[in-house]
Design goal:
12 helices, single chain, 672 residues, elongated
């Protein structure tokens, strides 16, 4: 684990333009170069003029947003991508998030609210404009709406809400669920013009199914937003929610029909494992803390878990008439006597947590722009012009780096950094053996240093094959300081924004010339810090070694057969039902510059040998010996990594796979 001193804040301004140099550099990483190029294109598209004709400068998308989108597109287009495909996908996705164009005619009540709108979008939020464009709305989508009008359908007792939002020119009508009808009043009701609401679990009735425009069908999952700075809202909170506290709840009173209105801060939101007859039902556990510091669990069951999409840690929750149950009768083990649940009469109000904006100085390292080769059309004047960026900071002082405009490096990592992404090389990885949980320690190295990160999986390893020397992109990392004043980096599989991509095993990489640069095999001794792409042929077949072994399908590593069944060398778990036969191939690659003896397993070996392990096993012993000779001089495009371990940790099982060889072939594609 890399240790850092706890630094003091540095308020000095840094002139980015004087440091950044865009130049051709043979040691650059083409993937990083394309991210820089794509960002310059998106920035040039977004720049415009204000009402006085002056050029506006925009911050544009964050570095990790671009990197993640590029990799998602590569996964979708497994046969390969072009620069045009990637730029098109990026532009469409960015425009959908931050819509540009002609001035919109929003209702005046929304324009007034927008002037003081500082709240961060919820993760699943969709705009009303996007609903019209796609004619689709998923149940888990969130609408952050503003009531433009509330009215009764003529001749009925059905209330409709006309909703707008801060990002759309369109409005959409919602059939209001009957549990909220008593909150609609033209004069004093909560649900009136200008009220912000969150809703989810909505079904969309399209124009073809009814009237001439889409409408939202009733949903129970609606949260009303309150503003403590508004007199009416402050009076409501004081009159209705300040008399009860968690300590005042009495089960005896509840059994006699008493109801409570409670006000508390959301401390955490998490999933909950259930046992027995409830094991198939989804559950969410929200930990609430009232003004006295007393904690209670607020539980959501089944479809109710959608409500968690409307809530955020740090926000204040006002629960009117929650269902109160005894934890003795519940299916979870908890030290609290009581639990709160979302009952049939429960109504939820929310005072959203507004993240404080904190200025973070950009601390450039010597390597930050090293090798940022951009196409000749790139204009350096389009690059970043500010030496500081504004990043949100939560109530605990943790700074969110998800929209940070630059690449983060190991040397940048400090305490209380969240949503960090790193791009680098795996130099060691192993499973923690002193815990029953699925936790793996990964050592990732970039041009500035290396650090250990702990990867937490909900059940078991789920990232496919990963080994030494592989190039990876990992997002959703959090940093904290240990008692020994060392930076600890954590990654949780199910956290929002968490992703992990192994670029060395990405099928699209070989056919995506915009993301790689062809190398000669003779370059491998020089450029060993990342995955290399080479065009080669098979040579010296007489020295080829072909062996078949068993592979653990989940992680892509060898499994040994013992008297008790199969055991994975990497996961260290029993895997009898998850093994398949695979090749362990050692072969000579050649090009115009030199020859390299390398190894591979799995699908890569199958591609090189052009036969499956089962078919190979059916051959006679003599045919197996002779078979590789038919492949001599066959040409392939291959991805190669330096897999020689450096002995940093306990990952010796991985170094034993290469049997002393320095180069692993991670991907292969036959040249036609």
């Amino acid at each position: 684990m890399t240790s850092f001193d706890n630094p003091k804040c540095d308020d000095r301004m840094i002139d980015v333009d004087s440091i950044m140099e865009v130049e051709q550099n043979q040691g650059e990483d083409p993937f990083l170069g394309f991210i820089d190029y794509a960002r310059s294109v998106l920035l040039s598209e977004e720049e415009g003029c204000d009402s006085n004709g002056r050029r506006e400068e925009t911050t544009g998308p964050g570095w990790s947003w671009i990197a993640s989108r590029i990799l998602k597109t590569c996964i979708s287009y497994s046969s390969g991508v072009t620069s045009a495909i990637l730029l098109s996908e990026l532009s469409q996705a960015w425009n959908e998030q931050h819509r540009a164009g002609a001035p919109r005619r929003r209702p005046e009540c929304i324009n007034q609210l927008k002037k003081k709108h500082e709240r961060k979008k919820l993760p699943n939020t969709v705009s009303i404009d996007s609903i019209y464009e796609k004619n689709f709305l998923s149940l888990s989508s969130v609408l952050e709406g503003v009531i433009v009008d509330a009215f009764l359908l003529p001749g009925t007792n059905i209330y409709m809400l006309s909703l707008g939002d801060f990002w759309s020119s369109n409005t959409i009508d919602l059939y209001l669920h009957r549990r909220y009808h008593d909150l609609v009043d033209t004069n004093n009701g909560i649900l009136k013009r200008g009220r912000e609401i969150f809703l989810t679990g909505c079904y969309l009735r399209t124009a073809s199914e009814g009237s001439g425009c889409p409408r939202l069908l009733p949903t129970e999952y609606l949260v009303m937003l309150l503003d403590e700075d508004q007199d009416d809202d402050a009076m409501l909170l004081g009159a209705q929610f300040c008399s009860d506290s968690f300590s005042s709840i009495s089960l005896d009173a509840v059994s006699k029909g008493a109801s409570y209105s409670l006000y508390a801060r959301i401390e955490s939101i998490g999933s909950l494992e259930t046992q027995g007859k409830f094991s198939s039902i989804q559950r969410k556990q929200i930990t609430l803390v009232d003004n006295d510091g007393v904690k209670l669990k607020f539980l959501l069951w089944g479809e109710q878990v959608l409500l968690a999409n409307l809530l955020s840690v740090g926000s204040m929750l006002a629960l009117d008439r929650p269902f109160i149950s005894s934890s003795v009768d519940d299916t979870i083990e908890t030290c609290e006597e009581l639990c709160l649940e979302y009952g049939s009469a429960t109504q939820i109000y929310l005072v959203p947590f507004i993240q404080k904006e904190e200025q973070v100085s950009i601390s450039l390292t010597p390597n930050r722009y090293q090798g940022s080769r951009l196409p000749s059309t790139f204009d350096p004047s389009q690059g970043p012009k500010a030496s500081q960026v504004i990043l949100p900071c939560d109530s605990q002082g943790s700074i969110d780096f998800s929209n940070y405009p630059f690449q983060s490096f190991v040397t940048d990592l400090r305490d209380k950094m969240t949503s960090i992404s790193l791009y680098g090389i795996v130099t060691d990885i192993f499973r923690e053996r002193n815990t029953a949980e699925a936790i793996f320690s990964l050592r990732i190295e970039d041009t500035t240093g290396a650090i250990w990160a702990k990867l937490h999986f909900s059940k078991s390893w789920s990232l496919g094959r990963l080994s030494l020397g592989h190039t990876v992109y990992i997002s959703g990392l959090t940093c904290s300081m240990t008692k020994k004043k060392c930076v600890e980096v954590l990654w949780f599989e199910n956290d929002s924004g968490s992703s992990f991509v192994n670029l060395s095993y990405l099928p699209a990489l070989l056919n995506s010339s915009c993301l790689h640069q062809l190398s000669y095999l003779s370059d491998l001794s020089i450029q060993i810090s990342r995955t290399q792409i080479c065009r080669v042929w098979l040579d010296q077949i007489e020295h080829c070694h072909v062996n078949t072994r068993f592979l653990h399908i989940t992680c892509g590593h060898f499994a040994n057969e013992t008297s008790c069944g199969f055991k994975c060398n990497f996961c260290h778990c029993d895997c009898d039902a998850e093994v398949m036969r695979t090749f362990h191939l050692k072969i000579t690659l050649a090009d115009e510059s030199t020859k390299v003896f390398a190894w591979c397993i799995g699908q890569t070996a199958t591609e090189l040998l052009q036969i499956s392990p089962d078919e190979f096993n059916e051959l006679s012993e003599e045919e197996q010996v002779m078979y590789p000779s038919s492949l001599e001089s066959e040409r392939f495009m291959v991805a190669i990594v330096n897999c020689r371990g450096k002995g940093y940790g306990a990952g010796e099982d991985l170094t034993s796979e290469n049997e002393g060889l320095s180069w692993e072939i991670t991907r292969a594609l036959k040249c036609e």
